[in-house]
User: Fold these one by one.
Assistant:
Number 1:
Amino acid sequence: ITVVKVGGAIVEDKERLSQLLKDFTAIEGKKILVHGGGRRATKVAEALGIESKMLNGRRITDADMLEVVTMVYGGLVNKNVVAMLQSNGINALGLTGADMDVIRSHKRPVRNGLDFGYAGDVDHVNGFELRNIIEQGITPVMAPLTHDGCGNILNTNADTIAAETAKALARFYEVTLIYSFEKKGVLSNPDDDNSVIPVITRNDFNKYVADGTIAGGMLPKLENAFAAVDKGVKQVIITLANAIDGKHGTIIK
Ligand code: ADP
């Protein structure tokens, strides 16, 4: 089974998204798509007069922003992706973590004075339920929203959703996890788009973090990637959005 995560910049760009979904359609076998949408949420919030607050590159989800991300991720982005996949002949089913109770989380506690608001840290992915869906020939399309089991939706990082989903399915399937985004892979020189690191180990990662080569959104992405490899996900690849055939990008070892 292949789990593909689509980065925020691709979701924003109708043409690139459409191409990515064609490539996704071409992947053989069972598959799951996980999408972000942070940039779109920021735009819609702005139109509503709601300020986007960030902390260490991550969103602070206050009560107003939680309503925005629920609408944008669970509605606008998710349903458009589902419709586009249907037009490709894929029987897609859009899901948040609350739907069929597929992903439970808890509100991230305030740590060292850092308060991310209604951000959910994943506790459990219901791999059985996801398998039941997939085995019917349905392709889940997952929005980066989870629930706490007490009636509350929580905003959850899409990279984390992809990794946790891949980990839960690794009990049943050989899983390939692909993070697609706007660069060709993890770069050894962030200013040189062609400096793709073909294979990266935990040791390399620590070294690149220490010298500042790897930073920003790539940090949690790689943390999630290594966690997936450690938990039995067969293959994790970070690659360009129009190179998700498993033959390009950076392999996480
Ligand atoms: P997504 O597009 O999946 O939402 P993020 O924006 O969270 O991803 O993280 C990817 C970003 O990480 C890239 O757009 C890039 O700006 C940044 N980045 C930092 N260091 C690197 C690196 N060494 N190689 C590639 N990208 C890097």
Number 2:
Amino acid sequence: MAEIQCQGCGAVIQTTNPEEAGYAPASALEREDIICKRCFRLKHYNEVQDVPFQDDDFLEMLNQISDTKGLVVQLVDIFDFNGSFISGLKRLTGNNPVILVGNKMDVLPKSVNHGKVKHWLKRSAKENGLEVEDVYLISAEKNQGIQQLSQAIDHYREDGDVYVVGTTNVGKSTFINTLISNTSGVKDAITTSYFPGTTLGFIDIPLDEKSSLYDTPGVIQRHQMAHYVSDKDLKLITPRKEVKPKVYQLNEEQTLFVGGLARLDFEAGERSSFVCHFSNELTIHRTKLEKADELYKNHVGELLTPPDQVTIKKLPPLKGHTLKIKEDKTDIVFSGLGWVTVPEGGITVTAHVPEGVKVSLRESLI
Ligand code: GDP
């Protein structure tokens, strides 16, 4: 079969894998102007579907931004900064200004201080080599903070183009769909067009006569917790509602299991409270440290669930990271799952997560 390119985004049309770029149902091949399913949905329903690309393709594509002038808007998931931050973005996007957007603010507990979240996002970006112009918190799903962000985008883009980038699952499609539906009258103006010079295109959403907002495909970060778990488990571990903190008073040599996906051993220190911030659907089990290994071995996938049986097959083994917590009010962050706040420093813990998933400490957000 001769290679056919999507008239919208330029991806090579294929009919076999709905999850990959350029997918179109076989029936679409009979039409004159063939477009992929993703472009079809955008054109007819104003809906953006995300198409993940392999890292290298994606990074190469992003690199093209460095040859153009435009504002880069990077979306991250507040619950998964390490898993959703694209490292090397500075190198990839050149001297273009970057706005960092923390999505899913609707699930943050009320007690969380938004100023601190922004500060932490900004500092974390800097630690990863990226100076950002500004940080915004939004809920793409609940349409919160979008107006303020739109104004900032308009300000920083200086009449130029805008590139929205993010890893899969940060809510980029939801964000763009919200943005489109907020902008009245734009419905008919939406076109999809081939971004010159790319083999796989960016989706082009015109902002005015001269400039556009480009939706770039979502990058896959392999160490994201989301990729290690089944769809069913992903639903459980992803907070859908405001996270309700759960408090545990622990003595040293006690352990908390977060389902069977993570484990926190209180190795040494005075009796202390551990405030857990995870999806409300996740069950936390307390046990003695000396019994923890055996409990895990005998009950992972049953009492300690998620993981379910599908996840167990692909989940890397848990790996321990020992952390000495010096400062009061510290969060132990389990990337892609949530965090545990310890009010007082001077304790030692070991946090276990699937190998490759990150654990870090930060000043408490509360
Ligand atoms: P993409 O892969 O980056 O395009 O992400 P999607 O837009 O498909 O969203 C990924 C998941 O995050 C979906 O389950 C969304 O429902 C959810 N999501 C997106 N935005 C928000 C948000 O603002 N708040 C919450 N709680 N969930 C969101």
